[in-house]
Amino acid sequence: MAKPREAKKKKLGPHAFINRELSWLEFNRRVLEEARDPSVPLLERLKFLAITGSNLDEFFMVRVGGLQLMRAEGRSQRDASGLTPTQQMERISRYARRMVADQYTCLITELEPALHEARIRRVHMDDLDAEQAAHVDRLFEELFFPVLTPRAIDPDKPFPHLAALTIHLAVRLAHQPDQESETRMAVIPMPGNLARFVTVPIEDGYEYVLLEDVIQAYAERLFPGEIIEELCVFRITRNADMRVREDEAPDLMAGMEDILEERLTSPCVRLEIGPGASNAMIEYLERAFNVEASHVMLAPGPLDLKAYMSIATMAGFDEYKCEPWPPQLRPDLAAPESMFDILSSRNVLLYHPYDSFEPVMRLLDEAADDPGVLAIKQILYRTSSQSPIVAALARAAQKGKHVTALVELKARFDEARNIEWAKALETAGVQVVYGVRGFKTHAKVCLIIRREASGIRRYLHFGTGNYNESTARLYTDISYMMCDEDYGADAATFFNTITGYAQAVQYRKIEAAPLGLRARLLEGIENEIERCNQGQKAHIMAKVNSLVDPTLIKALYRASQAGVRVDLNVRGICCLRPGVPGLSEHIRVVSIVDRFLEHPRIVYFKHGDDPLYYISSADWMSRNLDKRIELLVPVEDPAAQQRLREILETCFKDNVKSWELTSDGHYERSAQRGKQKRVRSQEVFYERARQTVKEMEQHQRTLFKPHLPSG
Amino acid sequence: MNASRLNAKSKPGIPVAVIDIGSSSIRMEIAELAADGHVNSLESLQHPVDLGKDTFTLGRIDAATIEECAKILRGFRRIMGEYGITDERSIRAVATSSVREASNREAFLNRILIAAHIRVEIIDEAEVNRLTYIAIRDNLERQGALDDSDTLAIEVGGGSTEVLLMQEGLVTQSRTYRLGALRMREMLGINRTPAHRVVPMLGRHIQRTVDQMKWALREADIKRLIVLGGDVRLAAQELVKTGNDNERLAPVSLSKFKKFASSMASISVDDLVRQHRLSYQEAETVGPALLAYARMADAFNMDQLWIAGITLRDGMLLEMATGGSWTDHFKAQVLHSARALGRKYQYEEKHATHVARLSSLFFAELQDEHDLDPRYELLLRIAAQLHEIGLFVANQSHHKHSMYLIMHSDLFGLSKADTTLVAVTARYHRRAVPRATHTEYTSLPQDQRLVISKLAAILRVADALDQNHNQQFQNIGFLREKDRLVILVRGVEDMTLERVALKQKSEMFEEVYGMKVELRKDSGRGRIADHG
């Protein structure tokens, strides 16, 4: 891979690390493989394809944008894998091109024929029947025409500013003999409020025309009396790696709004051009957006694959979708028993979305209405605007409770949405804190202070995912709820620290980034090494989304060298190179890509006979450990520990949706070997959750409970 | 600290907040006080401030620092609200030397009251020591380590060092030395001194105070040294591995402690902040303070010292838990201090103790008239106990000598205000009644002046009853007759002398209580207070 160069660091050369951008692209390839897997339901495949499109957009905006910025600033420092920004850009570009080609092969030659078969059909303008044509004609005249805004390009003026990620139509108009001007250009942005897929009437099934096809077909009506020489679609992507400069922006809210504006005008990092563009047109657009040829992607099919999500998730066509796996609500966590009563008798660990998110919601709902609740403190990050959680917090504040919401405005791409509901919360009387200066708050914790007959009690929820009911149905995450004095004191201290009321002190149980989280993990790793050296059995298991942090990777290498068994389940980026003799032969890295997005962070240290389990909000990336406020929460409850153990072990047993990272940095599908049982971990978790509920219900049926007067 | 999960006590605990405004940080403890006096900590907060730096260098608190403190305390006030703590009686906030010594302390207090609605009380060294002692004693007791051996408790603060000597479980000496970690840093200019010279320089400076301490404690046989304070708690985090929150006192070998102290003293403040996760304020005091402890331990030939995770706030909480009333132990402690002081001035103990006893009988009899809190009974007894110590100086005007001797002595357990009250009460045991020209009296607030009149009136009468210094009035009783209080006496034949004395000394009593006092032989009709 990397050219040999003078080893700057101690022993580990650049070969010890996998480049993070390439590792990320590898992840997207695994997602794409799901789209190409015929055993996956058709619309689910389309969804995976849409996800690869969305992922790639974000990758260009943030990662490529960042690299481009580094190059523009003349910085040439190499990354851990020994590549300069330029070298990385070259490889990314090569890899991404191959991926785009695969995406369109998948769409055009694999999915579209199958969709056609399934009566989900794209119709070209020329193929519309009379009724359909009349329908489209009416749509254009009544709905589209009034909102289309073609913009003429004045060659003497700067190119007009165009919105990123929006499909535009480039129009070349013919030279008119009575005027002196040469060829003229115009652009038509596709209005954001129009559906990309224009449904046309059909008796049976679903047929659609692409919006850009309609506009192209009717373009002449927008330029009356002119001759259109060429039409083509294109889309630009802008660098979004803008950091809020907090020192300069005393009011973060104002600073954030500036960023959102800046993001509209930052440099172009990718230019995608639809099929059929002439060379002249391509060159023209390249010049117009000032992009290098290597940043131009010629798409053989429709742009913006992300949009296909709406078809993949449309109503009906259930035979082409995954069998629904509804979240399971354990009867022992269901109403009417209040969450406060439940949690004061036992700790509750949930694995979403197999386990319903409802108990978490209910805890907050009850807290908002419970007269004994004095205060609620909650971190909100990427929650939804109509969120019942936000509503519950607002309601609690209106009822006179002390409600503090730490709203992280720096959640990537969600800023605009966040600002809106943050302001609404403030209006309701919630004390809203906009993040922590210099850090992004990523921890997920909720603290409820309640006055009870026995005194003050504190109820806690720790999570690995955001408080967002919609992603809670798509992401796998852990919730850990309890009523505990030590954890309660820790959570209180944590909130006091991040809201600036007090200085950080030692926690009783938990650990937080940026101060001590990495240290605690390193301590855990070093302890296993030491035990291994002393002849004890040692084992580390971890499930995270990304593993990038060089310090942790080096520690894991040391562990492998000492003989500690290390099992890692890393869904996305992994810069650790496993299976290298003398370096990492005791480390195994697997990645699971299935219908739910794998999202929890779970860590296990064998620790002799006294295993340590943690859940965490933090990925093992330097960014998370140094620049974010994250939590590492020990799980001490025996039943909860057992559950975590099962989750980890099942993940490592997956041989259906699991990929194994090889020492050359590539991933291979895990396969059933020999007599191994087929294990699809997500299915196992779903079945297990269902089974648990079933058993409980059966058990309850034999137990009658009289209605007792309340009070 | 760790109450069990489902500890279904019938009575709910009362959440309270105590705040301590110190020289380098403001700290708050939120805790629940159970009906049985158990204190359960809910939250501990601390926020660094530059109060000490301002006061010890400028003599006043900078306006920006005042605003910073107001902001911090506003935040603390909000946290209190989250636990439903709104009642003034559930909040106690105190400030120590850095506010006390600031010329603009009034402005500071007002600003905090207006901005954060927190009434801050400035407390003196004596009060700090008293509260700390309450916490130390409680912890020794709970750890089963309370014994009779001479124990020294030291806290090196930002501005001063407090030293308590405990003998047989009672405090027999309490002193404040002007050795402070922050003061040292500012005075010696440590920030500009190369690291290798810091330790010896501090050592020389500390040694001067250590020598004074040794002299003051020359008669004690110190067996145990307890060290307290924020800096010690930092050391404890590194040196003591204890999982038990209840064990707030932990022994550490001196050699280990010394090593740690000199390492901390020779690291630059910046490195301390980075390597040990300290705030700048903590980093500035930790080195000098730990070195001072090490020197003191050396001076008293200790081979280990007891690190105490005990704070002023613990004492405040314990006191709140007992409802603010003085415990019997505490009363015994204060009386012990008073007797020790009396002996120092070679007083006539029998007479003094007798007058004290009589005073307390009067106090009880006149409860409806004076309507005073029971704590004043103790103050009256102490004033009675010490009323004649001024004789040590001279016979003439000895009441005045008594006053200033008391005023300038450490009566352990009593605050400065209480000590003053005792001193002025003792002054009025004879001769002039309070007058506008008596500045010690007139400088007191109206309510305190009234208390002194009530107490001194009793003291005069009680003193008159032992005019002979022969304690012959052992059994007395009281009888009310219209406008007079009749003192019934049993077993005394000749009361001429006392009657004369009473005539002279009951004038004030008549003015205050509106009753004449009459001595009468008991004929069996009155109630006799029997004190066997």
Report the CATH C-level class of the largest domain in chain A: Alpha Beta
CATH class categorisation of the largest domain in chain B? Mainly Alpha
- The radius of gyration over CA of chain B amounts to 26 Å
| Mean of all residue-level pLDDT scores of chain B | 87
Tell me what the CATH architecture of the largest domain in chain A is. 2-Layer Sandwich
Strand content of chain B: 15-25%
Number of structurally distinct domains of chain A: 3
| CATH homologous superfamily label of the largest domain in chain A | Polyphosphate kinase middle domain
Question: Percentage of helical residues of chain A?
Answer: 25-40%
Largest interface: A-B, 34 and 36 residues
Task: Look at the helices and sheets of chain A and give the structural class.
Answer: alpha/beta
- The domain count of chain B comes to 3
Task: Itemize the secondary structure elements and their pairings.
The complex is a heterodimer of chains A (711) and B (532).
Chain A (H helix, E strand, L loop, with lengths): L19 H16 L6 H31 L12 H33 L2 E3 L7 H15 L6 E2 L15 E6 L10 E6 L7 E4 L5 E5 H12 L5 E11 L13 H14 L2 E6 L5 H11 L6 E3 L10 H4 L26 H7 L2 E5 L5 H12 L3 E8 L7 H11 L3 E6 L7 H13 L3 E3 L6 E2 L3 E8 L2 E9 L11 E9 L1 H14 L12 E3 L3 H17 L5 E6 L5 H13 L2 E6 L16 E6 L4 E2 L2 E5 L6 E5 L5 H6 E7 L3 H16 L4 E4 L5 E3 L11 H21 L10
Parallel strand pairs in A: 1-6, 8-9, 11-12, 12-13, 14-25, 17-22, 19-20, 20-21
Antiparallel strand pairs in A: 2-4, 3-4, 3-7, 5-6, 7-8, 10-17, 11-15, 15-16, 16-17, 18-25, 19-23, 21-26, 23-24, 24-25, 26-27
Helix pairs in contact in A: 1-2, 1-3, 2-3, 10-11, 11-12, 14-15, 17-18
Chain B lengths: L13 E8 L3 E9 L5 E10 L2 H8 L4 H20 L8 E5 L1 H4 L4 H12 L3 E3 L2 H18 L7 E7 L4 E7 L2 E8 L3 H8 L6 H22 L5 E7 L1 H10 L9 E5 H13 L2 H8 L3 H20 L4 E5 L3 H10 L6 H17 L4 H17 L1 H4 L4 H11 L12 H10 L8 H12 L11 H4 L3 H20 L10 E6 L2 E6 L6 H10 L1 H7 L2 E6 L5 E3 L3
Parallel strand pairs in B: 1-4, 4-5, 6-9, 9-11, 13-14
Antiparallel strand pairs in B: 1-2, 2-3, 6-7, 7-8, 10-11, 12-13, 12-15
Helix pairs in contact in B: 2-4, 5-12, 6-11, 7-11, 8-11, 9-11, 10-11, 13-16, 14-16, 14-20, 16-18, 16-20, 17-18, 18-20, 20-21, 20-22
